Amino acid sequence: MRPTRHRFSLTGKLALLLFATMLLAVGATVLLARLFDDPLLGACAALVLCAVLAPWAAHRYLAPQLSLFRALSGSVASFRDGDFSFSIAKRSNDELDDLVEAHNELGSVLREERQSLFQRELLLDTVVQNTPTSLLLTEPRGAIVYGNLAARQLFNDGRKVEGLRFAQLMERTPAPLREALGEGRDRLFTFEYAGQEETYHLARREFHLNGRVHTLFLFKRLTAELNRQEVATWKKVIRVISHELNNSLAPITSLSHSGAELLRRAEYDKLGRIFDTIEERSRHLHGFLRGYSSVAKLPVPEPEAVQWSTFLARLQQHYGFRQESELPSAPAHFDPAQIEQALINVLKNAHESGSSPDHVTLAVRQFGRMVRVDVSDRGPGMSDTVLANALVPFYSTKRTGSGLGLALAREIAEAHGGRIALANRDGGGLCVSLVLPVE
Fold it and tell me: What residues does the HAMP domain cover (predicted)?
C-alpha cells in the first residue's frame, strides 16, 4: 500500500503568498509612518517598498513553476516530433505533480506503442518481402512506390523498382503478361520464364493512401499448384476410365473365348446370346467415348440476354420442378442452350435420386453481380467420398450411369466464368448450386 503523501496545494501556496504580501505592506506602512512621523509619507514609502519586493517574491515563488512549464513545453514539442524519451522529475509537491505524472505516463505509453508498432511493421515488412507473391504498388501517376523481393526478381533482375514507371517496366515483360494487364481484370496467364512455362495469377486492387488512389498489383505463381492439381485430376480420371473399360473389355474377352469354344463344339444355338452381349458392351463403350468427346469439345459459350420466366418455362418441359423463390427482374446473360443442358443434367439426377418429384425444387437468387440457381431434392444425399468425386468426369455410383452429367454441368459453368457446388441438405437430400455472373 502506497503511503499517503502530504502536500500543500497550489491554491494554498498562492493564498499564503498574498497573505504574506499584505502583512509586509501593513508592517512596512506602520514602521515607515513612525520613522518619518508622517502617515502619508510612510504609506507612500511602504508602497514603493512593496512594489520593489513583490516582483522579487513572485519571481522566487514562480521560478520552479515556470521552469516546469518550460520543461513541459519542450517535452510536448519532442512528442510532436516523435521523440518520446523525455520524462520530467516531480518537485513542486502540489497539483502540478499530477500533471507531471500524467505527462510521464503518456510518454511511457507512447514509447511502448511505438516499440510495438515498430515490431509489427518489421514483422509485416519481413512477411511482405519474403512472400513468393510479387507485389507492386503504384501511385496515381503510375510511378512504383513499393516492390517486394519477388517483384524485383521477376521484373528487374533483382534490382530495386521503386521510382520506376510501371508502364515502362511492363514494356520489358512478355506479351502474355501485358495482355493480362490490358484486360483490366483478375486472370491467369502463362509465359516463359527462366526457360520454363510458368503460370501466374494477376490480381489488382485500388485503395486510398494519404488521400490518393493507389493500385496494388499481385502476381502469384501457380505453376506447381496447378501441376499438382492437374496430376491429381488425371489420376482420378484414369481410375474411372480404367474401371469403365475393364467393365466392358473383361466380359468381351471372356465371351470371345467362350464363343470360340462353342464354335469348336459346333454348339451354334448358344452363339446368339454371346454376340448380343458383346454388341451391348460395344455400344456402351461407344457411348462412353461419345460422352468423353462431348466434354472435351465443349464449344465456346455465346451469351445473350435471357428472361428467367421464359427460360424456366422451357426447362419445365424436360424435368418438372417446384419454383421456390421469386425470379430476378433483370435478365441474365448466358448461353441458353448450354445452361439449359447443365440444368437438365442436374434435374435428371435430382429425379433419379429417389426423391419425390414434389420435393424437387429450383430457386434463382441474385447476389450483387452473381446469380445462383439452386436445384434441391430430398433423396439420400451423398457420402463424403461421392461429394469429393461427383464432378470428376465418368465417376458414377449408378449401375448404368455415364458419370458425365455433373462433369458437363461443371464445364459449362466454368466456361461462363461461374462454378458449381454440391452440398447435403439438413433433413436429407442434396442441393446443387450453379453460380453464374450476371453479365
Answer: 70-115
